[in-house]
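Appendix B. Chain record.
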Amino acid sequence: MSSLQAVHNIPEICAQLGITDVVLSPGSRCAPLTIAFARHPKIRVRTVPDERAAAFIGLGLAQAQRRAVALVCTSGTAGLNYAPAVAEAYFQQIPLVIFTADRPPEWIDQLDGQTIRQHNLYGAHAKGTFEFPADTSHSDAQWHAARLVNEAINLAQTSPAGPVQVNVPLREPFYPKQGEELQFVPVKVTRELPGRPQLSITTLQELHEAIRSTSRVLVVAGQHPADAELLLALHQFAAAYQVPVVGDLIANLHLPAAASYDQRLRPLGRQDVFMAVPEPGLKEALKPELLITFGQSLISKALKLYLRTTKPAQHWHIQAAGTVADTFQSLTKIVRMEPADFFAAFGEASLSSLETAQQKQTTRSIPVGPTTRVEPQGFEPFEPVIIARTDATRVAPGPTRLLWPGTATQLTDTEASAKAAYLKPWLAAENWAAGFLQEFMHQPTQPFNEFTAIHRALQHLPDGTALHLANSMAVRYANILGVPPGQQVEVFANRGTSGIDGCTSTAVGAALARPQRPVVLLTGDVAFFYDRNAFWHNYPTPNLRVVLLNNHAGGIFRLIDGPRQQPELEELFETSQPLRAENTARDFGLHYFPVSTFAELESALPVFFAAETGAALLEITTDSPTNADFFERYRAAVRTSFST
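Structure tokens predicted for this chain:
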């Protein structure tokens, strides 16, 4: 048996525990790992030379496939280059298993080449660190090595998921002798079966009573993967309790739920618009008494600041496991459930049916109902109702209670009326914002600018798109504008750390993970050029489309107070750059579409998004001061919209 058999067993353990994709970067010290993974029949290996790009590509693969991906690198600073993606994976709760090859422990700090202190390399940004034994000649050491790999993979995938490091010290020789075959022998694996936290019927009844008896209940969703079960349960809950539900684009609440759904109770997503209205009456009308949140970070700074300054009496956060952030400084209760289970428990049943479920189900306290059986369908067409700008709280005439068939039995007429009085200003504000955007973005005379260009590009997204939003202005523009209603467009963004460093690589990983799905990256020039090595590999991505906003500067700094007022703006904040993407597109075989007018944009978009076009890059070249002026015009229009 080979002295490296314990290392050669690693791919077999990975494969048995569900890891099928490995992204590795070339190196000598990691050769035993590289060869073992490459020769395993159930593992797909991709080689990416730049470790920083490789790690983000791995993150994109894991994010798209919703299962763990392994990373492999050599010793020294190679593993440090994984750090930005590791941090992003930690805060986004994406499972990565990172195998860092290392020198044997006796050679650490001995001035040997490519040697740094690799134990616990990612510190507080990894769920755990495991040290593979340097000597596995004894049977106990082999058992120990296999056990560590099992524990690492299970830890990475256990809720809340995240990155783990397995540091693997290796001695020479690294390479098998000529003609020597690797053996993938049977190995013992330990499978950790997932469970879902439950609450007792008594606790559920107490929560139900609090929701029922509180007039001003608001649900706010942070970043969350698309989840059909959650969407349907959330919509039924909103109808049953007459509750407004608000979420950023990255919460994926805009996705279709069911054809029978009352469109006036759709989740709201225009908060970046109506929260910017300086109308005290509106802000008072929207103030919650009970805030229920789930998911991760929010993009909308306006909503975040509003909830911090308008603190509710109660704030419940729904999260099955892991550390909970007190984002709005008002947290009073942590509910340890999956959000889908929580909303299903209240959206499907009244107190009496909860009691019936307790009698019939001794093993589960959450009743099984329609949310586990109904197939999601498309939204019905929605035409926004434009509310008079002088009254932010008026809503168009309609029934007192908004219904989903078979729901809303939890409330008396008095309770429903009180809750509807709180729901109406939210709906009115959302409808006004949708109408305002429709009017503003279609002004007949306006300079060519990136805000309007993005609005038009979003209207052409193919159905079924995975939309990746780079950080800085791209994600903010998209959050304001939204995607066309009723389309199956799932939205992703690296908002765990909100860095620009791997946005392109993450989208490339997604394109590799699901080659039949359109993947569209919306990015700015600084993020794009910073991460050009995302394309430095040998794997085709014909489903990838990159929409690049090139204003030849870090344009966000002209749009935020502080840097835009400073004399050093252009030199030290915007960091103007003269680059164009044509060379990058040519180097990496991307079809290139340059546009600098609305006419060119409208002509290019249908061809750019056509399936037969293949991997392509649309470069939208604009002027940074013009963009800033137009966006300030937009903000001024929002601020004054209720004054006339």
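Further analysis of this model is presented in Appendix C.
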